[in-house]
Design brief:
The structure is a homodimer.
Chain A: H1 7-14, H2 18-25, H3 33-46, H4 52-59, E1 63-70, H5 77-91, E2 97-104, H6 109-121, E3 126-129, H7 134-146, E4 151-154, E5 165-168, H8 171-186, E6 192-199, H9 207-223, E7 228-235, H10 242-252, E8 258-261, H11 266-276, E9 282-286, H12 290-298, E10 303-306, H13 309-325, E11 333-335, E12 339-341
Parallel strand pairs in A: 1-2, 1-3, 3-4, 4-5, 5-11, 6-7, 6-8, 8-9, 9-10
Antiparallel strand pairs in A: 10-12
């Protein structure tokens, strides 16, 4: 390990002035291509990590980041994302960071537009947004791009848009995995399985869920074309009536033994199965909501697929800090893990 | 978010001197219980994170950590652990850290003792060790404890020993999960499955592997008592002859359709299956060695169970830094995740 490296050592080795090294280190302009290359070579050779914190602390600049997320209750998928955002806000507190949260109704496209206006009115230094349907998201992201405000998609990506970054699952692959484990549980000879949805006036409320189902259906077409895929749309905005709809469904389809939900509310079905004492139904769901995990432990959900929402929230704010504050280059696409959880490994899942 | 907090603000709020706050912040003695409590209360209320780095950088103290690991080739489980150790060494380079690696032959208890002596002779500030059989590990850890040198177990824990910490999988639960997915693949009515082992002169070479098999057998006894568990011990130190042993095994047991390895060499069986064009055998293994992952993608391994070895290596060095350098309290047991990977989610697994 080398001793302490001083900026003047780097300047001497790269044959440039101390001021040039300082400008390269802090991502400022006014450096010739040749000098920059020489400095960067020396930095790389020395594996030099400057104390960026110190210079940012000295600058006293304030930063405002806004997050636009779907409305949600406590203990839902988005509450975990918020915890991660809060973690990052603490971790980067030294950067004089303010993070403000805004919400929209995921089942009402109009609501997204209104909340987006309120975000824009803050003239933030960066935005994290969970996009709604692409056609309703575009006006907002066009506006942000026109103002030079970087934005990050969380949960689902809208390809082709000039976002700084995306954090979320590869929904297509995730749907394939759901199909594979469902058919392991069902047995390759199963004749029918069911997809449980949550909808409000025809709106699924999440691109991620729709794309997972596309991946699921492609896998089923390829590997189990003989298996019928039944559907049951439950109510998105309330649970009243779900029990009756499930009663009716199972009365009409007594032979179906396996099903999947692509939203985070598998517990609606899991708790129903427990209440009915209906054992042996194989249920696969998403996300580690407390009620889902309770069902997993109780055995009414067999597999949960998760994606570290807390880390997702954290990484979005971290990436804005990296780009906006630290002037680092960031990657456009960050696929989150597709984690497969059972009652055996749930206790060791990092959260 | 509060403004910048100065040490003299904390001193005033806790009604102690600036020197007392400084002593509490840096974990030094000479502070009354009452003053310490008052300072800690204020720190907690303010959510204060002092710039510990600055004071450590100023001290110029050097630290030596030694790691004692099993000998291994390139692209093996322990190479990933080493990458993590290297990552941490870079991340904590500011602490004037030297990390030295030592190796022992996991199939030779004598070798462990020799390497342990060489570690002790360095009089390190902290040790990370992958313990061999408990009776052969004890002399070394007793010696470290007597010298006041903190040590961390990696991979497998030896309970009751005064280690600073442990990083590794809960092997029992991991074995249960292996049994569950194996029987999903095999079908509940399967009559026999096989456990493939790697041994040298009767020595398995890893506590972790032995304990996984215990968990596996307990699960099988409870849920599938009718299923026979066959065994095949392959050679630990070379692959020559494995093919013949596998040929003989499958000739003797033509009906067995599912098997598991508890070591990281599932690829020995997976590649054999591919060479033989033997399709439809359900193989479950451990760890993301390149050859294992190739088999997973090719379909000759169905599930791999992983545990983030790189993070494990990183966290061991980080924990020594936390305890030895930063004087923080650390947890005794850190179970690593039990990650379940298939060809669908392998690409998104963080490494």
């Amino acid at each position: 390990m080398t001793g302490k490296i001083r900026i003047k050592d780097i300047a001497r080795m790269a044959d440039v002035s101390v001021g040039t090294v300082d400008r390269v280190l802090h991502g400022r302009g006014g450096v010739s291509t040749d000098s920059r290359r020489r400095v960067e070579e020396v930095l790389q050779r020395l594996d030099y990590h400057p104390n960026v914190y110190a210079s940012i602390l000295a600058s006293n600049r304030q930063y405002l980041f806004c997050c636009l997320l779907p409305q949600h209750g406590a203990d839902e998928y988005w509450s975990e994302v918020e915890l991660g955002i809060h973690d990052a806000r603490q971790a980067y507190a030294d950067f004089n960071l303010t993070v403000t949260l805004f919400y929209y109704d995921p089942y009402d496209y109009h609501s997204f537009g209104q909340a987006a206006c309120r975000v824009a009115a803050c003239v933030p230094d960066g935005v994290v947004l969970a996009p709604t349907a692409p056609q309703h998201t575009k006006a907002f992201t066009d506006g942000l791009a026109a103002c030079g405000i970087p934005f990050i998609y969380i949960d689902s990506d809208i390809k082709g848009e000039p976002a700084l970054s995306f954090f979320g699952q590869n929904s297509h692959r995730s749907g394939c995995l759901a199909a594979r484990v469902l058919m392991l549980l069902a047995g390759a000879e199963a004749e029918e399985v069911v997809v449980f949805r949550k909808k409000n006036e025809g709106i699924v409320g999440s691109n991620q869920q729709e794309h997972r189902e596309v991946g699921f259906r492609e896998y089923m077409d390829r590997h189990h074309p003989q298996c019928r895929i039944l559907e049951l749309d439950l109510q998105a905005k309330h649970e009243a009536g779900d029990g009756q709809m499930l009663d009716d469904f199972f009365a009409r389809h007594p032979g179906v033994g396996s099903g999947v939900t692509f939203n985070s509310k598998a517990y609606v079905v899991g708790e129903y199965l427990q209440r009915q004492g209906r054992r042996g139904f194989n249920l696969v769901g998403y996300d580690l909501l407390r009620r889902n995990v309770d069902c997993l432990r109780a055995g009414s959900i067999c597999f949960l697929i998760a994606q570290q929402p807390r880390l997702q929230g954290y990484d979005c704010i971290k990436t804005l800090c990296d780009s906006v504050v630290l002037k680092r280059t960031v990657e456009r696409v960050h696929y989150m893990p597709i984690d497969l959880l059972t009652k055996e490994n749930i206790d060791f899942y990092p959260r």
